[in-house]
User: What shape does this take?
Amino acid sequence: MAEFRLPPNSRIRGGVTHRAPAGAQQVRTFRIYRFDPDSGQNPRVDTFELDVSGCGPMVLDGLISIKASVDSSLTFRRSCREGICGSCAMNINGVNRLACTTSMHELGREIRIYPLPHMPVVKDLVPDLTQFYAQYASVKPWLQAQTPAPPDHERLQSKEEQEQIDRPAACILCACCSTACPSYWWNSDRYLGPAALLAAYRWIIDSRDEATGERLDALEDPFKLYRCHTIMNCTDVCPKDLNPAKAIAEIKKMLIERQS
Assistant: This one.
């Protein structure tokens, strides 16, 4: 399962402890990674004893409460709060998850929160996803067709054809899968990673797309595709219950069948 790696040449030091008010009944201890590259200081872990009786049940609710009432400098991403946008992906108790769909009550008294592993940190729990999005864009995740669209209706698919792409198309680009992948940790500059390859697969199998050959040609590379060793971390951590590992295996199978 995904683990967290410190930024190069850095050392986590003890941080600040914020105690819960006297008499608090429902206390959860949040240990949160704090790092501001602009400060010149090493990362630290701050401790927040939070009375969760006054906030919602999810980890994101706890983070919002801490930011609102304890430390306004705490930095994290969030948007939809319903597991749709993927913004609040982070490493929670050692596993990449969405903070908005992870219940505090399932995690016990202590909740340890770090940014997604093996990514540059912009600040605190915010990773730099520039390369991740560039890799996604590199697979050309849009319909490519030379045949003109019908003048009086959209490009049609059968129900079976639509069902083929239904699950792969549900990816929310949270980056939980790619940042849980050891092959991506070691080769993120050349290996596209599970999220980008799942997106590539979604368009390769789309019956309306006419660039299957070009898409497969672009992936037939020792690093872009074949650094996947089927460790399955990507599938284990996906918050949408998708299967990037299977999609990658299917792409490899297509390339083999094309050569035979």
Notes: The longest strand covers residues 27-34. Confidence is low (pLDDT under 50) at residues 1-10. The chain has two domains: 13-127, 130-259.
